[in-house]
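Lab notebook, bench 4. The sequencing result for the construct came back, and we need a structural model before the next group meeting so we can plan mutations. Quick request posted to the team channel:

Model the 3D structure of this chain.
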Amino acid sequence: MNTLAAEYERALALWRESRGCVHLMGAGGVGVAGLARLLAARGWKTSGCDTSVNRLTQWLTERGVVVVRGHDPVHITADLDWLIRTAAVPADHPEVCAAGDRGVPVTLRGVALAALARGSGCIAVGGTHGKTTTTAMIARMARTVNAAAGCAIGAEVPDFDGVASPAGPEAPFVVEADESDGTLALYEPEIGVITNVDYDHMEHFENEQAFHEVFRSFARRVRRALIVGADDAVTRAVVDENIKVWPCGLAADAKVRGENVRLRPQGSTFDVRLDGHRLGNVSIPAPGLHNVRNALCALGVALALGWPFQAVRAALVDFRPARRRLEPVWDGDGIRVFSDYAHHPTEIRALLESVADFGHRRLLALFQPHRYTRTRALADRFPAAFDGVERLWLMPVYAASELPIEGGTTDDLLRHFDRFGRVRPGLITTMDEAWETLWRELRPGDLLLIIGAGDIEQLAERFRAAAGDKFMSSRILRAPHGRCDGPCP
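Done. Here's the predicted structure in token form:
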């Protein structure tokens, strides 16, 4: 039995036999914070730690979970029954080693969540792109048909209280399942979803074949129906032999098919057919063709479970995307700024297509690459992904605990733009420099995208804070060259 499978079996046993004390390392992260909330709701005495405090640690504190700053072996107390760690914390960390020395079971966050999600009501959503949005859509639908439905989502979603909530008895539990560390293959859901399969997470998978095998393993463990993105050829090849497949998308042979798609900046509308029979029209307030595909996968889940179409259609009308999914953070002086989590070339391309009809004069982008391994593996795909951007700036790679590698730095990426790109990026080294550079450059009619999965979010929050300062906003006067006549934020 491999290491993950052994951890999974041990985690299942802990769920069944104990309601003791559990401590989670990385409680400020979305995945660990959500798991901590679910553990506490199940009756575990739950505590956590992280290197810094944030909105999520505050959210946990308000729900009775004690969270302390910093990782330290002193957290391994005599009454501790279980230690759960984020994948960002290495197995040889002193706190983890202290647990091992005392015989305390140690489990990866993704393994523990897969064990918690095991049950007849589990709906597990995987895929390289779109799984957060699809999970949030399904969770909103589930709440519409059963108020006791629970969820665990990999981002903060305005429709829900935080990032996770427990499910009531016999109610659906909708979980975003992570392929990045291989734990997707541990799930045994009633309904499984694979939105698409696009090679990623090179820090964990040595090649595409290994990456694909995780999805194949997941597909084999689905009990009732496997919802897949019908428009992604790789996904369909990966699950080709699975007889439980429901292809959902725009393809002519899709079981749940969208047609007559109308894309607008405010969102999209489309007709839905099930096995060729028209069910009706659906509207979603999320722009972009990729979100139409996400919605069709979500609808596939609802239809496979027999949820009323009229009810789930109504649930999508008021759907609100997760944070940092084309999230507006500034709108003033004819300038609009959006923040987006995109960090893979496919996601960046979809993002740019989504804003193509937003009516701007110039499209500008600031991008922070995420992980040296991903930057090196996909470096030749990034330049084309930014086609259509008039001005582009690159930040240093967000390491995500990795060490720099040859071919994976921002300087290496810049050389690919020199060879293949239509735009020559500028280099920016700090958040302060980015803030000052952008405000010198921005002009009325500009649309700026702040792109990346790392701490570039801090810059988006800075724009949001400036937008919320009415006094400051009222004094921003633009000169034709884009500089501030009054004080810049």
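Residues 327-474 form a domain with the Protein-Tyrosine Phosphatase; Chain A fold (CATH 3.90.190.20).
Will bring this to the meeting.
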